[in-house]
User: What shape does this take?
Amino acid sequence: MASISLRKVIKRYGSGASANQVIHGVDAEISDGEFIVIVGPSGCGKSTLLRMVAGLEEISEGDIAIGDRVVNKLEPAQRDIAMVFQNYALYPHMTVYDNMAYGLKIAKVPKADIETRVQKAAKILELSQLLQRKPRQLSGGQRQRVAMGRAIVRQPQVFLFDEPLSNLDAKLRAQTRLEIQKLHTELGVTSLFVTHDQVEAMTLAQRMIVMNAGRMEQFGTPEEVYARPATTFVAGFIGSPPMNLLHGRADGASFGLTGQSLDLPRPAPRNGSLILGVRPEHVRLSNQGSWALKVEMIEMLGAERLVYGRLGAALFTVRIAGTDPVPIMGQTVMVQVPAEHIHWFDEQTQARVA
Ligand code: ADP
Assistant: This one.
């Protein structure tokens, strides 16, 4: 097991005038044994970052260290990592056993040792009864476990996961998430896990790196990222439905939007242009409230309902319990907002101010 350091890591594809910089200086210190999720929308650079740790992409600038070794110039095989891919990449003509054993055979690990490691991994992953099957005789979830087994038998210092669950259906994905968590508790191997799915990130991560357009927007525990998003991007990306973000002008305890001035339960941290953030689950429809919401649409989700409407001209979402009284479309209802759930962001930098 090992720590991982990313120091001012930059990646450019191409060179000279046509160079396209896709990672803009990422710094992160990952402790030995941590489970880190890298999350962000498609194209933000997650896979590129992971592939640079793996040694599948060159690092244009900066350093990546695994343990106390800078690995920039090392081949993937010398980095003591094991990677689990989205498409599993199993050999179709080999049995489950041979798929797991293959890398060890190539590395000339003694046969008895291979047998012990494969049997142990198979037991952890509940594959012991399936070792003589071929991949085509397995379900998607079982193939996924074989791919993990192949990583486990290598006994690497670091596991790298590149969207390993995206080919599974929703139910199996949830189940496999639990298995990965259990595996991490048992083996304690430092892990980097890439996904575009914020729910997957929130449920798996001990800490998460939220990426946007090649930059790290925030690095923190799921609780920190949810409770104190560092930027409007993180506020909008983590949490479903996303945080409401209202652009307006603060003046003491009032916040002027286009078409409505909101009373604030506590004065804004400063006057002038600001973005007010509040999550749909943190506001209530109540006659004691003072923000007037014109209801435009209601969605029933079972245990809860989403009420969409406008505060002045601004779109605003409220999440209410499925058992709460249902507002009527076209009517105006009052919204109550607790002071402790209001977030403030700078209009220029989009960074958190309070
Ligand atoms: P993600 O994994 O977050 O979807 P990627 O790391 O795959 O994003 O890609 C980040 C950016 O780098 C994207 O704009 C993508 O088009 C670009 N990119 C990825 N691979 C290459 C490549 N081999 N050559 C040029 N550009 C690339």
About this structure: Residues 13, 20, 22, 40, 42-48 surround adenosine-5'-diphosphate (CB under 6 Å). The mean pLDDT is 94. The radius of gyration is 24 Å.
